[in-house]
Amino acid sequence: MEGKSARKRVQMKAGDELLNKYQQDWKMLHENAVSAAFKAKKVDVLIKEAYGRVTNNDIHIEKLCKHINGLVNMLDDVENISANIARLEGSLEEVSTVITAFESICQQHSICAEQLKEMENLNQLKLQKRLELEEKKEVLAKDHSTKLAEVKSKHPEIFQSRQEALKQALAGNENFE
Question: Does pTM surpass 0.85?
Fold first, then answer.
C-alpha cells in the first residue's frame, strides 16, 4: 500500500505543481489582462485625442481649402482688374490725345476770335473813317460851292474862262477813251 500512497503523493505533487503552474499562469494572464485593459484605455484616450486632432485638422483643412478657393477667386479678380486697368490706360491715352487736339482747336478758335475781333475793329475804324471822309467831302463841297459862288460873283470873267478850260479837258478825255 505504501506504493499506492507514495504514488498518490507523487501524483498529488505532480497535480500540485500543475495547479501551481496553472495558478501562476492564470495570475500572469490576469495581470496581463489588467495591464492590457489599462493600456487599452490609454490607447482609447490616445485614439480619441488623435481622432480629435484629425477632426480638428479636417476642419482646418476645409477652412484652408475655402481660403485657397477664395484666393483663386481673388487672383481672377486681380487679373480682371489688371485687364481693366490696361484698358483704362489705353482709354486714358485716347482721352489725352483728344484733349490735346481739343486744346489745339481751342487755341485756333482763340486766334480766330482775336483775328475776327481785329477785323471787326478795322471794319469799324474803316466805317468811321469813311463817315469822317464823307463829312469832310460834304464840308469841302460846301466850301467849294461857297468859294465858287464867291468867285462867280466877284470875278465872273475868271469863272467863265475856267469853265471853258474844264469843258475842253473833259472833251479831250472823252476822245481819249
Answer: no
